[in-house]
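ARCHIVE CARD
Drawer: 12
Card no.: 0347
Subject: one protein chain, sequence and derived structure
Cross-reference: see card 0346
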Amino acid sequence: MLKFLLKKTTYGLLVLAGVVTVVFFLFNLAPGDPVRNLVGENASEEVIVNMRRKLDLDLPLGERFLLYVNDLSPVSVNNPTVAESRIFFDQEKYSGVKLISFTKNRALVLKIPYLKRSFLTDKSVSAILGEVLPGTIVLAIVSIAFAMFIGLIMGIIAALKKDSFYDRLMLFVSALGMAGPSFFVAIIVAWIGAVLWRDEVRLPFFPLLLLIAAIISASGIIRFVNRKRMRVALIGLFASWMITEWILPGLPFFTARITLPGTGLNMTGSLYSVDVWKGEYLDLKNMILPVITLMIRPLSVIVQLTRSSLLDVMEQDFIRTARAKGLSEYRVVLKHGLRNALNPVITAVSGWLASLLAGAIFVEFVFGWKGLGQQMFTAIENQDLPVVMGGVIVIAAAFVIINIFVDIIYGWIDPRVRIG
């Protein structure tokens, strides 16, 4: 296991090194002058020169890259004595300790990776990302947890009830969820949950009754003598209700309404809200609408993957052997079938979790959620390169860590992976 972890960690570090290299040159070779954006067009040449010196933009691109890698590395070479040096070991800037001195002006330092400072606010990039990361992490983990829990149940039902009403219903729901773009789904969920249904909603009783009867008829819960006639009768009753609503809108029963309580949710909000009297407090209800929005697409993928993988596994020889031994269907499905069908599901979940950690920009914008995606979009707009680069590196690190964790889970779930 130790050899496996060392191998995966080495691969992860190589990936991060590649990401850092690409990100640095990509953003530093982009057109535009961030100094001009900061000081304005009318700034004097002296101010511009001093600002470029402060941001290390007066150095050649290669030297700036080496300085950035030195700051980013947890083990770096710094100057512990000369304050004017570009690599001066400033205790206020770096959080670390000196390991060994090579010369008077060179020492090996162990420190927390330094992501530079924001061009706009002169605030540490680590501090900026530290303020927005908790909101994105909580939103991503809660969304993927609900998506996996509900998706596994729906996928198992669809597989065990293959070609039934339930199977078709689960597939229809998953296809519908995958078809909706995130920004469109976010707007619809926000409109329904925070505007249309905020206070209360009055639904017509008769169409709801017809809908329940149609579901019962299609599902086969109650066996009707003639389903075709039942469908025709339901369609006729629904048409009668529409005509009655148009011609006789005041007729009792046909116009009865069911009043449902409102959600009481706001269109916008973050993990923490601010009250005049309470101050800042944890406001979990703001998570409901963003979580629903974010979980729809991964839930759809999990349903389809679980169904197809479980159907394939349930046809294997070891499943027939387990049944022949007299094991209960519950143990056969969950212990033997589902466990061997989880590999593709875990792969999908890990990818979705990493994507959600990257920041669902549209969702965060629609719901005014303070997160990583919104912060990076703002930084890109203002050419705040250190914040953008720091955010991309944090996202890449999250991908690497999640992939290593998923590989460990593979070995725990599937002995064949462990042996390989």
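Annotation on reverse: The first helix runs from residue 2 to 28. The CA atoms of residues 141 and 353 lie 7 Å apart.
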